[in-house]
Amino acid sequence: FRLYYDVPVWGGWRELRDPLTERRYWSNVNSMLMTWSLVELLRLNGLEEFLLLGGWQLFTVVPEKMEEYEDPYFHLPVWPTPELVGDPLVELKAGDVVASINMPK
Question: Which of 6, 13, 43, 58 has the least CB density, counted as fewest CB within 10 Å?
Fold first, then answer.
């Protein structure tokens, strides 16, 4: 049996965090649905809650140094952990746009 801290959001969806894995997941108290997948949450009509209540941030990748800005092979690796070890999750290039989505806490 696990205890979860949850915060209700409009429409019945709740964003939760598994205390063992620290992974985020979503549960709908009205429909008794649960998903670990953001894509599935959007398919289950959770998008409206993100738009109304969530926090959105957009970023664009712009190299700071002129040499990097003009380099057609410039890339910015993104790692899954603050230690920056292992293989990067993705490599962004100049001009890429990144969206950060957060449900309300």
Answer: 58
